[in-house]
């Protein structure tokens, strides 16, 4: 069973989102996110098994693996990897458009003792929000001012990418609209020609009929 959760994310307004959802045995959850090209995406997740004795979800679920698969708008696999019960995954988009982010467990054995219930917490960070600036500052030995400048430059770069992606979407929409209008025009012309031909044929047929009956 494959359940698609379609999330239209406007990156300038909502550069990240966090949620949790439940997965059943052999179930696959997919999210669709529109991403500009050359944009880094980081996903953080955590799984929780249901405990019937506690009537609640456990804080952690060791032994449960999670498979993450990401495909780009051209259906090419960008990322396909098994992870532990808790972790993070990162990928960079190379094609603008809708990316499918799918998650499913690597085993169904957990359903035997979890009542078939597994809760997954997921957080997805887009663009500069996916950067760990504390780690960057420690690695590059940046001062607070330099780090702030780095963050501002990353934000400007992400805004530029988003604007380019919006122009790409507008161009694609305009092309689709022009193509649709052209097809509608040709269809209308075709209908007009068929109507004229039908009328001409009917007039000749009626004329021949009246002449045969010597009514004219």
UniProtKB/TrEMBL annotation:
UniProt entry keywords in alphabetical sequence: Coiled coil, Membrane, Signal, Transmembrane, Transmembrane helix
Any one Gene Ontology cellular component term annotated for this protein: membrane
Transmembrane segment boundaries: 184-203
Endpoints of the signal sequence: 1-18
Family: Belongs to the EMP24/GP25L family.
Protein's organism: Hydra vulgaris (Hydra)
A Pfam family the protein falls into: EMP24_GP25L
Coiled coil residues, start to end: 135-162
InterPro entries registered for this protein in UniProt: Emp24-like, GOLD_dom
Membrane topology: Single-pass type I membrane protein
Main subcellular location: membrane
Every GOLD domain range: 28-149
Record localization: Membrane
Protein name, entry field: Transmembrane emp24 domain-containing protein 9
